[in-house]
Amino acid sequence: VLGNFxxxxxxxxxxLLDAIADNAAMIVKGDESGxxxxxxxxxxxxxxxxPEKPAQKQSxxxxxxxxxxxxxxxxxxxxxxxxxxxxxxxxxxxGKD
Length: 97
Known about the structure:
By secondary structure, the chain is mainly alpha-helical.
């Protein structure tokens, strides 16, 4: 298993080492960002073919009806201000003063 590991790394290692050798002067000049740009472009490689997009399914839920907007909103439930849990929380956090 370990014998094949080095062969698999050649795809990206050789271009990286070549880019380091070609652009070593950029490091000496202090242009680290330019050097990293060149090195990353060298290692990037070629893009593979784009995968085919699956066919879009026809669905009834493409767009929602305006009727949904006209429906009344659900009433907001008022939380109780008293009770054992509320009392403990008021003690813990000091309550509203």
